[in-house]
Amino acid sequence: MVKYVGPSLDATFAALADPTRRAIVARLGEAGPSQGVAVGELAEPFEMSAPAISKHLRVLERAGMLTQQRDGRVRRCRLDPTPINEASRWIEHHRAFWNNQLDALADFLEGPNKEDAAHD
Description:
Layout: H1 7-16, H2 19-31, E1 37-38, H3 39-43, H4 50-62, E2 66-71, E3 74-79, H5 82-119
Antiparallel strand pairs: 1-3, 2-3
């Protein structure tokens, strides 16, 4: 039986579907959980407007992958790995399922050949 996790998993995959958001998540992951990363620092490598970066950050925030906090005039972002960990567990479950299915298929397909080789 396939276990469906629900909207949070959908939001995680939707958020990670965009390369800019994946790059933001990677930068936040590299920074670690310390004080967070200023939005301006996150935006530096991207050639897009501040409102566009803010939209990407809101998508990640709605998916539960980051939190934003004001530090004076600066907004700082921190990564919350919980949704990514849930997605990873979901992927691992399905990877294991399909590996087992493919192993069983390989055994089935190789089965008659093994018997024929034993009789020769």
